[in-house]
Amino acid sequence: MRLVLLGPPGAGKGTQAQRLVKRYGIVQLSTGDMLRAAVAAETPVGVKAKAVMEAGGLVSDDIVIGIIAERLEHADARKGFILDGFPRTVAQAEALDGLLSETGLKLDAVIELKVDQAKLMHRILTRAEETRARGEPVRKDDDPEVFKARLEAYNRDTAVVSPYYAAKGQLQQIDGMRPIDEVTAAIDGILETV
Questions:
Q1: The pTM is what?
Q2: Beta-bridge partners for 114
Q3: How far apart are CA 192 and CA 105, in angstroms?
Q4: Would you state the pLDDT for residue 164?
Q5: Kind of pairing, strands 27-30 and 81-84?
Q6: Start-to-end C-alpha separation, the chain
Q7: How many CA atoms lie within 13 A of 42 on its CB side?
Q8: How is residue 6 annotated by DSSP?
Q9: For residue 29, which phi and psi values (nearest 5 degrees)?
Q10: What are the φ and ψ backbone dihedral angles of 75, each rounded to 5 degrees?
Q11: pLDDT digits (tens, 9 = 90+) for 17-65
Q12: What is the CB neighbour count within 10 angstroms for residue 192?
């Protein structure tokens, strides 16, 4: 099973992806996680991406597409995968179509978590507070100013990906503001039909 989860930062894509990994035994390919790992390892891609990520911007298509292409070649991705945080632009969506086509694969579902963006800031602040309460460091992405920049970048650059998949008849939308278990049930309902 090959899935794309769409939605703005804080919509719950990561949470739902983790549940899908457990249920279907497929890997989550989070570009954010892959980029953070590259930054931590100080790889050439990580060095290029670090300044952009810390400012809340979007890393260039070439860097992200290269990371995805490499990752799709790993054995654990052959059974299926969930893309979380990719594609972020129509160019990336087209590149993904090309990557999959080259290997005779296609997406089984593209699911968008629709959310009230005005309420996302509260969600992010709550997530940061819960992280601190557990004694863990708060992700730079959860800083209110960085989050605001990420949300603006999403609305400017990424929101157009949904219409791209809608025009291809692939987009399914779910109310991402519902409780987590209800969102999971709605996603499962979609996946039962593919």
A1: 0.82
A2: 175
A3: 19
A4: 97
A5: parallel
A6: 9
A7: 0
A8: E
A9: -110, 90
A10: -60, -40
A11: 999 999 999 999 887 777 777 788 887 777 777 877 777 777 788 888 8
A12: 7
Cis peptide before 87 (omega within 30 of 0): yes
Two tokens at 15?
A: 């949470």
Neighbour-count burial for 114-151, b at 16+ CB within 10 Å, e otherwise: ebeeeebeebbeebbeeeeeeeeeeeebbbeebbebbb
DSSP letter assigned to residue 68: H
User: Model confidence over 65-83: pLDDT tens digits?
Assistant: 877 887 888 899 888 999 9
Q: Tell me how far CA of residue 21 lies from CA of 67, 83, 126, 169, 175, in angstroms.
A: 20, 11, 25, 25, 21
Task: Tell me which residue of 67, 64, 83 sits closest to 13, measured CA to CA.
Answer: 83
* CB neighbour list of residue 30: distance below 8 Å, 6 or more residues apart: 14, 17, 84, 85
Is the CB of residue 149 less than 8 Å from the CB of residue 56? yes
CB atoms under 10 Å from CB of 76, counted, come to 12
Q: From the centroid of its chain, how far is CA 120?
A: 16
Each residue's pLDDT tens digit, 89-142 = 899 999 999 989 998 889 999 999 999 988 888 888 888 889 889 999 888 777
